[in-house]
Design brief:
The protein has a single domain, classed as Glutaredoxin (3-Layer(aba) Sandwich), CATH 3.40.30. Helix content is 23%, strand content 18%. α1 crosses α2.
Length: 116
């Protein structure tokens, strides 16, 4: 049988939620300035020469109550972050060294909305 695996263009792909909900109560990730934070992460990754890492904006990841959020694929590791220092730690530990920033992880059981 032929190999149908699609090769990845990137070793890691970080998606930062930058959504601002205007017609819904409560905060959304974009309300925390995530576009500027995403641009910082992207610029730092480029400055470090991480050509195999892509940083992109994401539409709503569906967990505004945990935000702001980013998710890194292909591992599907979810992080909740607040500051540039948090993002720099994720960059260093996860994107460069391949580890996980335990204190910022969204537990797997929290990455999906609760069912009614």
């Amino acid at each position: 049988m032929p190999d149908t695996t699609i090769p990845s263009h990137y070793r890691l792909h970080a998606f930062v939620c930058t959504t601002i909900h205007k017609n819904r109560p409560g905060p959304s990730c974009g309300d925390h300035g995530t576009e500027a934070l995403r641009l910082h992460l992207k610029a730092r990754a480029r400055a470090l020469g991480l050509a195999d890492v892509q940083v992109s904006s994401a539409s709503c990841l569906g967990r505004c109550d945990l935000g702001p959020l980013l998710v890194i694929y292909p591992e599907a590791v979810w992080y909740s972050f607040k500051t540039i220092a948090d993002l720099d730690e994720i960059l260093d530990i996860h994107l460069v060294k391949g580890g996980k920033v335990e204190r910022l992880l969204v537990p797997p059981e929290r990455s999906l909305p609760a069912t009614a």
